[in-house]
Task: structure prediction
Amino acid sequence: MELKRAGRAGETYKGIGKYDLNLESLPLFADAQGPHGSPTSDSERTMVTAQTTSVLAVIISFGGPEGLDRWAQRMAELFEKYASARECRTEIVV
Result:
């Protein structure tokens, strides 16, 4: 499974509340079904709904990994406080 890569020629997805996005050359996240998220917009396929039971939240840092532990912990705290999250795990991927 590819986690992050550049968009390929002709790749698109429907952004949340948006139109089909042209993903060519954009940094994006993909799985076996194809692209589903980018710094520009996430896809309708992977958006949070009333049926959502798990979430992958991504912090994209263009300034390197310094300080990301603190921001990842803060994000977990906010998920616990406002979304009743349990079992929050964080990982820094470079």
